[in-house]
Amino acid sequence: MRFTSIIAALSVFGAALAQTPVNHVVLVGANGTLTYSPAQIQASVGDTVSFQFVSKNHTVTQSTFAAPCSNTTNPDGTPGVDSGFQFVEANATAFQQWTITVNNASTPMWFYCRQTGHCGMGMVFAINPTAAKTFEAFQTAAEATVSNTTSGSSSAGGAYGGSTTPTSAGGSGSTPVASPTNSGTSSGAVGVKAGSAAASHSLVLVW
Ligand SMILES: *[C@@H]1O[C@H](CO)[C@@H](O)[C@H](O)[C@H]1NC(C)=O
Ligand SMILES: *[C@@H]1O[C@H](CO)[C@@H](O)[C@H](O)[C@H]1NC(C)=O
Ligand SMILES: *[C@@H]1O[C@H](CO)[C@@H](O)[C@H](O)[C@H]1NC(C)=O
Ligand SMILES: *[C@@H]1O[C@H](CO)[C@@H](O)[C@H](O)[C@H]1NC(C)=O
Ligand SMILES: *[C@@H]1O[C@H](CO)[C@@H](O)[C@H](O)[C@H]1NC(C)=O
Ligand SMILES: *[C@@H]1O[C@H](CO)[C@@H](O)[C@H](O)[C@H]1NC(C)=O
Ligand SMILES: [Cu+2]
């Protein structure tokens, strides 16, 4: 009896182990670049993805493979998930983290940065891209959303870079780090949990 109970307990434990969720950490703006690092991941149901905003002023915003640089709307009418803008002081020592949970590994999820110009510069991210819908094709499509009216193009470069961060080097006096004042973005999660959407989120402060 007792022995059987132990075996049963071990079996349950084994099953639980096999499904232990993974937390995937993705740096947003590592080294001041317009990137998500890594830019794509493979995740299982129950896994979480924690985006850590480490520079400038970016978002993580859900889009679609077909329209990489545009918001998406779920079938139930709720908006796709969105971290909101997360500004990072040049001398920050603590960073905002935004976490979503993968609820369906069979449905790829596509994301972009809403900051002006960044998506066109290829600042996109994918969860579970497929052989038919690759991250590379998604990023190429994002970059192709930039209209090619360039000739002199010096102004174009300015437009892309211009709105990223108003950091003056050597940063003069301001508060250390964005505190979790982003409760506003959490309300966006209401739409997420309502439908069968593949994510939920919260903001926490990490160091
Ligand atoms: C950031 O810089 C570090 C140190 O040079 C390097 O190891 C890392 O790969 C860089 N990350 C990105 C995303 O560029
Ligand atoms: C971050 O970028 C957004 C969009 O460009 C802008 O509205 C916001 O003021 C920026 N935040 C800071 C602190 O500069
Ligand atoms: C995209 O979604 C965000 C978050 O819901 C919203 O603030 C923003 O206005 C939307 N942008 C567009 C172009 O609809
Ligand atoms: C997961 O996504 C696939 C592909 O979009 C869909 O066919 C399936 O119904 C989804 N499963 C659940 C539980 O929502
Ligand atoms: C813009 O130009 C690049 C390089 O010439 C090209 O690959 C891209 O398809 C063009 N995009 C559009 C929207 O025309
Ligand atoms: C960031 O720099 C500003 C201005 O120099 C300073 O007031 C602030 O305390 C610094 N924050 C941190 C976390 O070092
Ligand atoms: Cu960005």
- End-to-end CA span: 49 Å
The helix-and-strand class reads alpha+beta
Computed over alpha carbons, the radius of gyration is 20 Å
Mean pLDDT over all positions: 75
| Helix content estimate | 10-25%
Protein name: Phytocyanin domain-containing protein
Keywords: Signal
Question: Quick summary of this structure?
Answer:
This is Phytocyanin domain-containing protein. The protein is an alpha+beta fold and 207 residues long. Helices cover 22% and strands 21% of the residues.
Which labels suit this protein?
single chain, 207 residues, five-stranded mixed β-sheet, 5 helices, 22% helix, binds 2-acetamido-2-deoxy-beta-D-glucopyranose
